[in-house]
Amino acid sequence: MNDYAAGLPSPLSFLGLGDVLARKLELKPWSASILPILHMVKISEGRTKPEMSNTNTSKFGPIEITENMIGSVHLTFLLSLPGCHSQSSIQNIILGCRIAGGLIQKQVEITEEPPDGRIFTKIKRGYAIIPPTEKKQRLIASGNNDDLVSIARMLEAKFANGDWLVPVSVGYKLIEDPDDIKVRKYSRCDNVPHVFAEPVLGIAKLVSVRNPQLTQLNGSKFKSSLWSWDICDDLILGHSTYRTN
After folding, report:
1. What is the pLDDT of residues 91-131, one digit of tens each?
2. 2-28 pLDDT, tens per residue?
3. Contact yes or no for 191/143 (Cβ under 8 A)
4. Rounded CA gap, 229 and 142, in Å?
5. What is the distance between the alpha carbons of residues 243 and 221, in angstroms, rounded to a whole number?
6. Cα dihedral: 98, 101, 103, 108 (round 10)
7. Are strands 102-103 and 163-174 parallel, antiparallel or unpaired?
8. I need a surface site. Which of 57, 94, 104, 127 has the fewest CB within 10 A?
9. What's the distance, Cα to Cα, between the start and end of the chain in Å?
10. What is the pTM of this model?
11. CB 241 within 8 A of CB 131
């Protein structure tokens, strides 16, 4: 995730994947909404050598950065892409994309489901990563020691009404003004400025997909349970609920 949290894939990784799909499908950027559901997370020691992949040029090249800690994740994620009406187009594009530092190399199964809580009854057992519902849990920190201590104290409880409380990366705090940035050498995109930022730490909940607080969601409440980009001054957040702090 970032300097403050590790072990679970960040909701921002999934949002990043959603935005990549939106851009490749020529849909509105920043429009994707997503909800990761973890079935199994297995942590292992980092590789001493990066995994290699055939680059189609008779050579093999690394497909990941060597990390101190890696793992494998089995998951389902709900994805909303306004304006997309083709499952096959997503199926073709998502293969070869990256998420949480890893390459998607296996075909992903995609199904279209109604946008309400009924979908959770069809998903195999697991835990959805959702933003906190209680105001006191909507704490964020971006390097300030007092804020980090407040989050640590909140996480000491671990459980809230039967749900796991977990530290997650919830956004970025810009330390440069995008309007004043000159084009940097080797930047990935000519029309998107490269801006330095600090990670923002927050709290999320792991909620069972069989929990009524998910299965009974409908309408706007279902939509608000998904992670989606939110811009607030110098903060880029993964959900608008963190604005309250």
Report:
1. 888 888 888 767 787 778 888 888 899 999 999 999 999 99
2. 556 666 778 998 999 999 999 999 999
3. no
4. 17
5. 17
6. -70
7. unpaired
8. 57
9. 21
10. 0.82
11. yes
Instruction: Tell me 191's DSSP state.
Output: S
Question: Is 99 in a helix, a strand, or coil?
Answer: strand
Residue 103 in tokens: 């390459």
Structure tokens at 135: 């105001």
* Residue 168, amino acid: V
The C-alpha angle with vertex 98 and arms to 175 and 13, in degrees rounded to 5, equals 45
Over the stretch 163-198, which tens digit does the pLDDT of each residue have?
A: 889 999 999 999 999 888 888 888 877 778 889 999
Contacts of 97 (CB under 8 A, 6+ apart): 17, 20, 21, 103, 104
Closest CA to 41 of 9, 4, 6: 9
What span, in angstroms and rounded, lies between the C-alpha atoms of 216 and 211?
A: 9
User: Residue 202 contacts by C-beta under 8 Å, 6 or more apart in sequence?
Assistant: 138, 139, 140, 141, 151, 167, 168, 169, 170, 171, 242
Q: Which positions ≥6 away from 229 have C-beta within 8 Å?
A: 15, 19, 30, 236, 237, 238
Q: What does the alpha-carbon distance between residue 51 and residue 161 come to, in Å, rounded to a whole number?
A: 41
Write down the residue that tokens 């909620």 correspond to: 207
Q: Where are the beta strands (DSSP E) in the chain?
A: 33-45, 52-54, 60-62, 69-80, 98-99, 102-103, 127-130, 140-141, 159-160, 163-174, 197-208, 227-228, 230-232, 235-237
